[in-house]
């Protein structure tokens, strides 16, 4: 039984290793060639695996993109959260997080994989698991701001959804524009103005 247990553990570890290898290779391929241009045969060969390993772990190419998008979007949220945590209070932190997320639309990997190919292939980004996690964190911050009477008395979920949606849609707009660097400050300025409308008084 111990031997079988060890074998099962090793199989699980190998599956995790293969999964990680495929995600790493896919991130590079999708960022450099785009979803449509990335070859699954080349990708699997580059990491010494078969297409069978890809199908076993992700179902298909779309499933692999979903895993890559989830990883990058999760990293974006963590980065934005770190930036927000350096702010002097919850309100400034909330604002800094949203702005940081929008600014990441200038990152070539984020732009192509998450903000352009992601929605085109995977559909509505607000339904992605990584966005649900962001929404939950935003709601907790909004609830604290409501309790402290920093925000006007609004519904916490409604405010969190509108703030998260505004940051996401601003990032999508920047990424899809002909001149992202020119559009970015406009998007940030509008996001800041919209978010400030929730304040109970000028701060």
From TrEMBL:
InterPro entries: Homeodomain-like_sf, HTH-type_TetR-like_transc_reg, HTH_TetR, Rv0078-like_C. SUPFAM superfamilies: Homeodomain-like. Keywords: DNA-binding. Residues 39-58 bind DNA. Residues 16-76 form the HTH tetR-type domain. It holds the Pfam family TetR_N. One of its GO terms (molecular function) is transcription cis-regulatory region binding. The keyword Cell wall biogenesis/degradation does not apply. The keyword DNA-binding applies. It comes from the Bacteria. This is TetR family transcriptional regulator.
């Amino acid at each position: 039984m111990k031997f079988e247990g060890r074998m099962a553990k090793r199989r699980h570890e190998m599956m995790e290793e293969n999964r990680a290898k495929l995600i790493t290779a896919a991130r590079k391929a999708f960022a450099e060639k785009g979803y449509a241009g990335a070859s699954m045969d080349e990708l699997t060969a580059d990491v010494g695996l078969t297409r069978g390993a890809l199908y076993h772990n992700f179902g298909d190419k779309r499933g692999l993109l979903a895993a890559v998008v989830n990883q990058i979007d999760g990293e974006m949220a963590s980065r934005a959260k770190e930036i927000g945590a350096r702010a002097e209070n919850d309100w400034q932190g909330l604002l800094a997080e949203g702005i940081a997320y929008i600014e990441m639309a200038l990152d070539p990997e984020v732009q192509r994989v998450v903000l352009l190919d992601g929605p085109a292939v995977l559909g509505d980004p607000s339904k992605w698991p990584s966005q649900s996690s962001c929404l939950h964190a935003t709601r907790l911050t909004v609830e604290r701001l409501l309790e402290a009477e920093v925000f006007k008395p609004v519904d916490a979920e409604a405010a969190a959804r509108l703030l998260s949606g505004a940051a996401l849609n601003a990032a999508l707009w920047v990424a899809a524009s002909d001149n992202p660097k020119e559009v970015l400050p406009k998007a940030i300025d509008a996001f800041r103005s919209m978010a400030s409308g929730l304040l109970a008084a000028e701060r």
